[in-house]
Amino acid sequence: MGFESIPKEGSRVKIQSYKHDGNIHRVWSETTILKGTDHVVIGGNNRTLVTESDGRTWVTREPAIVYFHVDYWFNVICMFREDGVYYYCNLSSPFVYDEEALKYIDYDLDIKVYPDGKYHLLDEDEYRVHKQRMKYPDDIDKILRRNVDILQQWIERKKGPFAPDFIKVWQQRFNNDFKSY
């Protein structure tokens, strides 16, 4: 990735999620970039307007830290609720960034992680339907299955965004440093 394809720290960017067929899936209107490197983008948002593919809109309910890595086929949303941190993990293409937005392809499968560390793989039926309808290649299927395994290992080993220190550092940074942007 070239230097120009990294969102700058402190900037506010749109996040666009697509489906395999190229149609827009979901758009988050604004996320504050807390860290942007060649490999990782970490952002924070709170009460962010989200637009669905059918035009419906809603606003996120709680502060969240988002984690994207260019080498993995998933991204992670860490949501801060009164009873603890919940994680919503999207199986997706690695992100790309251009002047318009941070973009990725959503591949239906999700893993929800609860504050007690338990987790569930979600939307396997939706994945099967879309795999057939949008003709996901076998290579993509293999990559996604491998990344489900990697993600489960990260969750169980408290690696990456699941590490307690990750949450402490980035939540504090978002709350303190980026409220003024």
From TrEMBL:
<comment type="similarity">
    <text>Belongs to the Ntdp family.</text>
</comment>
<dbReference type="InterPro" id="IPR007295">
    <property type="entry name" value="DUF402"/>
</dbReference>
<keyword id="KW-0378">Hydrolase</keyword>
<dbReference type="InterPro" id="IPR050212">
    <property type="entry name" value="Ntdp-like"/>
</dbReference>
<keyword id="KW-0460">Magnesium</keyword>
<feature type="domain" description="DUF402">
    <location>
        <begin position="21"/>
        <end position="159"/>
    </location>
</feature>
<keyword id="KW-0479">Metal-binding</keyword>
<feature type="binding site">
    <location>
        <position position="110"/>
    </location>
    <ligand>
        <name>Mg(2+) 1</name>
    </ligand>
</feature>
<feature type="binding site">
    <location>
        <position position="123"/>
    </location>
    <ligand>
        <name>Mg(2+) 2</name>
    </ligand>
</feature>
<feature type="binding site">
    <location>
        <position position="126"/>
    </location>
    <ligand>
        <name>Mg(2+) 2</name>
    </ligand>
</feature>
<dbReference type="GO" id="GO:0000287">
    <property type="term" value="F:magnesium ion binding"/>
</dbReference>
<feature type="binding site">
    <location>
        <position position="110"/>
    </location>
    <ligand>
        <name>Mg(2+) 2</name>
    </ligand>
</feature>
<dbReference type="InterPro" id="IPR035930">
    <property type="entry name" value="FomD-like_sf"/>
</dbReference>
<dbReference type="Pfam" id="PF04167">
    <property type="entry name" value="DUF402"/>
</dbReference>
<comment type="function">
    <text>Has nucleoside phosphatase activity towards nucleoside triphosphates and nucleoside diphosphates.</text>
</comment>
<protein>
    <recommendedName>
        <fullName>Nucleoside triphosphate/diphosphate phosphatase</fullName>
        <ecNumber>3.6.1.15</ecNumber>
        <ecNumber>3.6.1.6</ecNumber>
    </recommendedName>
</protein>
<feature type="binding site">
    <location>
        <position position="106"/>
    </location>
    <ligand>
        <name>Mg(2+) 1</name>
    </ligand>
</feature>
<feature type="binding site">
    <location>
        <position position="108"/>
    </location>
    <ligand>
        <name>Mg(2+) 2</name>
    </ligand>
</feature>
<feature type="active site" description="Proton donor">
    <location>
        <position position="26"/>
    </location>
</feature>
<dbReference type="GO" id="GO:0017111">
    <property type="term" value="F:ribonucleoside triphosphate phosphatase activity"/>
</dbReference>
<dbReference type="GO" id="GO:0017110">
    <property type="term" value="F:nucleoside diphosphate phosphatase activity"/>
</dbReference>
<dbReference type="InterPro" id="IPR016882">
    <property type="entry name" value="SA1684"/>
</dbReference>
<feature type="binding site">
    <location>
        <position position="90"/>
    </location>
    <ligand>
        <name>Mg(2+) 1</name>
    </ligand>
</feature>
